[in-house]
Amino acid sequence: MEAYRYPQPMASEITPRSYFLSRRTLIAGAAGSMLAAGHTAQTAQAAAGHAGGEAGWPAPEKPTPRNDVTQYNNFYEFGTDKSDPAELSGAFKPLPWSVQVDGMVDNPRTWPLEDLTRQFGQEERLYRMRCVEAWSMVIPWNGFPLAAVLKAAGPKIGARYVAFTSVFRPSEMPGQRGGLFALKWPYVEGLRLDEAMHPLTLLATGVYGEALPAQNGAPIRLVVPWKYGFKGIKSITRITVTDRQPPTSWNLMAPEEYGFYANVNPAVDHPRWSQGSEQVIGEGSLFRTARKPTQLFNGYAEQVADLYQGMDLRKDF
Amino acid sequence: MPSFSSPRRRRSRFSPVTRQVLLYLFFLLPAALDIALGMAGTLGPNPTSVCLHDFGRYAFRFLLASMVISPLKRFVGVDLMLYRRPLGLLAFTYAALHVFFYVVVARHLDTHILWQDFTTRPFLTFGVITFLILAALAATSTRRAIRALGRKWVPLHRLAYLAMLLATIHYTIAFKTWHVEPFIYGAVALFVLALRLVPKPPRRSVQ
């Protein structure tokens, strides 16, 4: 398969791990005056980076530190705190795993996970991740395009949507035992078929070159980098091609707050907060967070904007 | 019913004011701990948000604590009135830290972003009013202010009940889903409020 070209996060968006670590060491070991100095230097750097100069920010080496990617997660099946997924997912056994592909397809099939990775390979994709809560990361995923799986299944004429279903295992997922205050389980998501077939849309089985940890959606999850993170359903058990717009979990919970499309859009605010800018996880200090403006379609407008031509993005948010 | 007329006076080697100050300083420890851990880099990937939310919760806790002092005396006979003022000031202090972490640390004092926030995030409106009330109460908590306000001081400080209700709403609707904690805090707040509505028996009123 030919490698798909997509925009890499800009150099200024990426914090080199060495820089990140050295600042931590500095802060940890420093007295108050040292701290103040470090803070000023960092502010200056952030300002320079903001101006768009390559000189301001250290050269890119690596994305958001692995530790942050694997310790700061929204995965309500394990709990609502960002640290819950990493801390409370010990009982979750992702293997063996299989994914059922069915619905309006010529070749319905249940794929053992190994067969998927064997057949469709593994490539690395460095994607921006923008959470609907207005924070962001830059994450190196490993996986294969969803399109490959769908092509193998062969959508029938008239198919328009793809529905995804996550796993339901209350005995292994403490967040699913909550009941009253939780989302409805299992978590479900959906895409329009053309969105699902887009070469940017990824089924990830790994992050940072290793198998997905439970908290990141083991063993296989969806990544749609131009949409808010909650569209990236984790621990997928079933992919169903359909002619009807499928229900989606957050939309069921609060339809006026979370739309079906959920495209990243700084001009369309969440009813309870602004989406104009985002906090960059892994950067900044205790006394000054790193923020940057949010981009339309999370910076992938050139690749995906034509999917939404003629649509009112304010109405179909 | 315990008698209020002859309160037991325990001996303390510290003067009342010293005891108030010690209580206040002691309960600044959670803030000091968070900031120390945050500076040491052990508060996780988003230390700012941990501080922000911890301080907000502490503000609420101390507000509730200051509000149970009076019913404790009236219904249980435990007199901790000496500590009501430092508890109220702790509520204000933590609320101020909470606001500082939001306005300065998270939002960089950016008036444009802040204005956007205040106009698009209703829960912030509740938060802002709560903070303004706490600030007014803190500012009028000195002996001089109490004397200057005279009879007006009591009705003014009843605003603490309003602050408690607004804080409950602020906390409850701040999440993406319903969380259990705000409802626990809210239940305590409503309980305190309900006690307030219990009519006082005639001639039993305390001073």
Automatic annotation (TrEMBL), chain A:
Co-factor: note: Binds 1 Mo-molybdopterin (Mo-MPT) cofactor per subunit.
Names of the cofactor(s): Mo-molybdopterin
Keyword Oxidoreductase: yes
Positions contributing to Mo-molybdopterin binding: 73, 76-77, 131, 166, 216, 221, 232-234
The enzyme's E.C. designation: 1.8.5.-
Any GO BP: protein repair
Region annotated Disordered, chain positions: 45-66
Protein's recorded name: Protein-methionine-sulfoxide reductase catalytic subunit MsrP
MF terms (GO), sorted A to Z: metal ion binding; molybdopterin cofactor binding; oxidoreductase activity, acting on a sulfur group of donors, quinone or similar compound as acceptor
Residues in Oxidoreductase molybdopterin-binding domain copies: 94-250
Family statement drawn from the similarity comment of this UniProt entry: Belongs to the MsrP family.
Keyword flag Metal-binding: yes
Functional description taken from the UniProt entry: Part of the MsrPQ system that repairs oxidized periplasmic proteins containing methionine sulfoxide residues (Met-O), using respiratory chain electrons. Thus protects these proteins from oxidative-stress damage caused by reactive species of oxygen and chlorine generated by the host defense mechanisms. MsrPQ is essential for the maintenance of envelope integrity under bleach stress, rescuing a wide series of structurally unrelated periplasmic proteins from methionine oxidation.
Catalysed reactions, semicolon-separated: L-methionyl-[protein] + a quinone + H2O = L-methionyl-(R)-S-oxide-[protein] + a quinol; L-methionyl-[protein] + a quinone + H2O = L-methionyl-(S)-S-oxide-[protein] + a quinol
Subunit: Heterodimer of a catalytic subunit (MsrP) and a heme-binding subunit (MsrQ).
Sections of the chain in a coiled coil: none
Cleavable signal peptide: none
InterPro entries recorded: MsrP (IPR022867), OxRdtase_Mopterin-bd_dom (IPR000572), OxRdtase_Mopterin-bd_sf (IPR036374)
Entries under HAMAP family matching the protein: MsrP (MF_01206)
SUPFAM superfamilies for this protein: Oxidoreductase molybdopterin-binding domain (SSF56524)
Organism, as annotated: Acetobacter senegalensis
UniProt keywords, alphabetically: Metal-binding, Molybdenum, Oxidoreductase, Signal
